[in-house]
Design brief:
202 residues; alpha/beta; seven-stranded mixed sheet
Length: 202
């Protein structure tokens, strides 16, 4: 899993509420047997017109936000189905962090397990960032995971909270299996001692 430490980049405002996983990754992109090409499916019905050309009205198609690394999303982002493809696609598209007020539970967990940072802020904090990044000349921010801060274009810092396990996992690029393997020696020692106490299990 790709680690997340300190990252500076463009943040794109996408404030719609209750954006579900079918909007993020429509069902026609779930047919593949691998994860390749999911970046094209992200927000497909919003990003593209009926003829397949990019919709110039969509924020990620606009020149000043095309290379966004962060999305400033509305409340309850990621609701709907549990499809992990939504997170895989966002990451392939280059989105490294989602900044919002609330996220759907399963989607939130899928992000943490796949190296996409989800930052939960108060509505007031979110509004401060949204006001800045809506302006093309102020849309670059720095997300500092070790310090748990977001720095705006003018240098103002906004602090955020994150649970320790998620933070450690993201900083070290560890998924659930990787986190478990951190304790491999303790696991092996338990196996040895458990079999010594219960030899009939061997």
């Amino acid at each position: 899993m790709q680690a997340f430490n300190v990252l500076t980049g463009v943040a794109a405002p996408f404030p719609a509420a209750n954006v579900d996983t079918d909007v993020i990754m429509p069902k026609q992109f779930l047919k593949g047997i691998d994860r390749n090409g999911l970046d094209r499916g992200v927000f497909f019905d919003l990003r593209f017109l009926a003829d397949g050309s990019p919709d110039p009205a969509f924020i990620l198609n606009q020149p000043d936000w095309q290379q966004a690394k962060f999305l400033l999303v509305g409340p309850n982002f990621g609701c709907g189905s549990s499809r992990e493809h939504a997170v895989w696609g966002l990451k392939q598209l280059g989105i490294r962090a989602l900044i919002g007020t609330t996220f759907a539970g399963i989607f939130f967990d899928n992000c943490q397990r796949n190296g996409v940072l989800t930052v939960q802020l108060s509505p007031d904090q979110w509004g401060q960032i949204a006001k800045e990044v809506a302006q093309a000349d102020k849309n670059d921010i720095t997300v500092d995971l070790p310090a748990q801060t977001i720095s705006l274009h003018d240098g103002k810092e906004i602090a955020f909270n994150i649970d320790e396990l998620s933070k450690t996992s993201l900083l070290n690029g560890l998924d659930a299996v990787g986190n478990t393997l951190r304790y491999s020696e303790e696991i092996r020692e338990f196996q040895r001692s458990h079999l010594q106490r219960n030899p009939w299990l061997a």
